[in-house]
Amino acid sequence: MITENNLSENEEKKDSQDVSHEETSENTVSQDENVHEEDTEHEEEHEDVDISLADALKEMEKIINAPNAGENSKKFNQLKEKANHQIHDEVEDKKHEYVDAGNAPENFSYEHPLQARFSALVNIFKEKYDTYQKGQEEEQKKNLEHRQNIIERLKNLYTNSEPGVNLFKSIREIKEDWSKAGQVAKSEFRILNNNYFHHLNQFYQMLDLNKEFLEQEYSHNLEKRQHIIQRAKELEHEPVIQKALNELQYLHKLWKEEAEPVAEEFREKTWEEFKEISNKIHERKSELSAAIESEQNANLEKKNQIIAEIKKLSEPSETPNHNYWQNSIKRVEDLRAEFLKTGSVPRKLSNQNWNDFKTTLRGFNTTKNTYYKSLKGSQQANLEEKLKLIQTAKDNQNNEEWDIAVPLFKKLQEDWKKVGHVPKSMTNKIWDEFRDACNAFFNNYREKSNASTDNWKENYKNKKTLLDELKTVSNEEGSIEKIEAIKTAWNNIGKVPRDKISINTEFNKTLREKLKLNKINELELKEEGLSENQLTDKARKIKSQISDLEAEIVKLENNLAFFKKPSRENPMLKDTFDSIDEKKAHLETLKQNLHSIIAGE
């Protein structure tokens, strides 16, 4: 009589043979699965497409901001390589332009505007990846201990199981726990997996395993195999071939880990059916290869058209002007971005296509630089003409023959406006020289013209009274209006004796102290009685401060852009938002003052 805990020798021998045959089948599945994995990896190579530098940095930032950034290290490193490659290429382009302009290569110095952001993203990801790796190691240790406990339960099931134990239910629970257990370190997995299947086979061969349980187990696993085969048949008609290959690989994994053993009469039959379907699906790879080849050829044609258009822009049919080159520069930037966004081309032509693109791009830059280099000749002539005007102004700045000198300086100013552009590096320098010479002349002209009517001593007395009044101003309400009134009155008073001129320095020092006390900038003061030169000087200073404030605001807003969702509620960002608001308010006030000066209000 056969009981739950007793099997005949024949059944034991039969089970042993079955397990041996099943192991052979498992090895076959394992080998086939490895082939499928290699195929999938091979297909994934074709997913690589070109991407612009800006888009690569955006994708890197998305990965960093994801909850589990460390899981995407492969994709992040691919994007990092692409971004680094493009930054290097763009720096090389700048170097070519620099050398083409006639400069020595060893003097070249350039930092890519996106280099700092790129480096910051790489450093942030490294920190997150290190944290992720530590967490993975801890998780793998826990999973290893859990899997070892499962193996121990399996071992006890066939060595120490008590009478009445439901073996079918127990082995189902163990196999389900094993399939759900998390990953362990690669160095531990092979030994651990072999150990598990060894004890699983031992369980199937144990002497007290009855025939009824074995039939239940065979039936359950056969049902799993049939489900896998049915899903594989459906994959034959899956329109997305890559998706079919990926899911087929998963089905092979299920077959190996969860669909064994089955009764002997179904083993070869089910495996051959599954293998035949798998082979049919893999035969469709030729369709995928053809689709990839067609897409890559289309990409190659599109990229070659881009190269041809850039080459055409480099060789204008008519003599180009400044507007032509400015429009062409913008168009080439658009074409460059389009080239980088276009997908991959056939691998054997990839390097040649990329080199053609870079060569054509550099050819465009060389031709453009040659044009602007030719402009330097006319700019140099303009510079020489303006230098002559400066020299004439300096020679006559002390001329007191007003009937001759005044019309002369007005004519010099008109001629200055008519002369064309000069080299950018000299623009500010020569303008300052010319303006200073003209100011010196007109200041002398006004001083001598008004000397007979000015009562300098009376002026000093009035200025002394205003200075004393300014010293009493505090920071109470209405103080700013008092300061503006004092400053306006001061501007309307003429010159003082030369030995008393230090009162001007004392007044300006006291004014700065009172402005600081009332937290107001001198350029924001509403004042009247300024001369034309004073108004011009004040306008220039306001323009300079506006430019500085705008740069500071842009810098602060760029810093906020590094955060995924910047908000005032974030304590770390509150000061930054407040600073931006303060600077924008100051900027608006300066713009209004500049408008008032220009409008003559």
From TrEMBL:
Basic and acidic residues: bias regions: 10-24
Highest taxon, organism lineage: Bacteria
Pfam family for this entry, one: DUF349
Stretches the record annotates as Disordered: 1-51
Coiled coil: 532-559
InterPro entries according to UniProt: DUF349
Keywords in alphabetical order: Coiled coil
Keyword Coiled coil appears in the UniProt entry: yes
Biased composition (Acidic residues): 40-50
Keyword Cytoplasm among UniProt keywords: no
The protein's name in its UniProt record: DUF349 domain-containing protein
UniProt source species: Chryseobacterium wanjuense
